[in-house]
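User: Predict the complex with D-MYO-inositol-1-phosphate.
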Amino acid sequence: PIVGRKSFAAVAINCAAKAGEWIKTKLGSYVSLNMKFSQHDLVTEIDKGSETMIRNLIMTHFPDHSFLGEEGVEPGPNASLEALDNMKEAEYLWIVDPIDGTTNFVHGFPFFVVSIALAHKGEIILGVVYDPSRDELFIAEKGKGAYVHGRRMRVSQEKAVHESLLATGFPADHQQALPLNMKQLQSVAPKARNIRASGSAALHMAYVAAGRLSGFWEMGLHPWDLAAGSLLIQESGGRVTGLNGEAYHLGIKDVVATSGDIHDELLKLLKEAGK
Ligand code: IPD
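Assistant: Here is the predicted structure with D-MYO-inositol-1-phosphate placed in the model:
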């Protein structure tokens, strides 16, 4: 939709490209590194600068919209859902991860992105994930398909887990989540072709949309990790649910995202791993 001078998508692309290019110039030269909720949950001044840049640009174009950004929320496993709850009346809500993959960014491992989504009355209508290291921009608009480099994305064709390359991740509340992560790996790894854990949920989701991975799962994530990626996958023909198979919504923390055909098999393997 066109509001004022620019479309939502044009503003989101502009924000992601500007922030992404700036982040790339700062790789290896951040000055302040802080632990948030745990020693596994990092933040630098570059995360904060990126979020400020994106927020200011969005607010210039859409001053009456609401904004939920990772760095504007108190750290902690449930804080994002509390923040979301306070914004449930918002007509338009932008959901932003200014650097998804901060640990990678800190270590110079080039697998981090800017993730920007827009929800209208709780439904995600726009998702943009920008990978500055490869200059790849993934975009989806509700009902209009998903694209990378201007080419339509389609999920992979694999029909079973044994022929699938999958990805997972280890959430920020590591310590608490690790026993379940290990059980899930033990259940899925012997069945899958192989598993990656590259440290950016949003980029893993974009790769599922692009058919480079057949599936991704991770426990304990936040709306800003998942919102944009979920629309990319749905618009590429894939399926995104919670661990119990419930359709994706902004409050989902435990996500299973696949090309579709392998979804039920992966859900079953994860269920067998227990809770
Ligand atoms: C992190 C990444 C990572 C996931 C963590 C997230 P952040 O996001 O998505 O893949 O394993 O749980 O916190 O903190 O780098 O934006």
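Residues 70, 97, 99-102, 169-172, 199-201, 218, 221, 225 surround D-MYO-inositol-1-phosphate (CB under 6 Å).
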